[in-house]
Amino acid sequence: MKDPTGNYYTKNSPELNTDGYSDAEKETLAAYKATTWKDLFPKEDAFNVKAYGAAWNIQIPAKDEVSIFGNKMKDIPWKRIPEAILAKPDDFDKIWDAYQNDLIKPGVEKMEKGYAKYVQDRVKLWSADEEK
Q1: Alpha carbons within 13 A on the beta-carbon side of 50
Q2: Is 32 helix (H, G, I), strand (E, B) or coil?
Q3: Global pTM?
């Protein structure tokens, strides 16, 4: 992104970024008629403004049970997703079912409800500002 004077806000310019691409990356991007990886992403105007902002940025206290559940859940995908990807197609459903059970046991549904409450609280808080 450029500032009003036409200079980039960071020391990295698109040209500097593309200079670091390997030949394989440049060839792949060219096949998609793109110059940078960002060219493949949807444009900003393709996204609506969310009433809750960036949900990933909602602060959840470390001692909250939602945070504890979230930490338990992190290891499960790291184990099961590569296993599913590398498995024989005939084994996928069995691995997927085991993955789902691994998430349910420690409380994924309770965690999701907790996260939903934080998002709902944020929407309520930010919507209150709009009503004033």
Answers
A1: 11
A2: coil
A3: 0.55
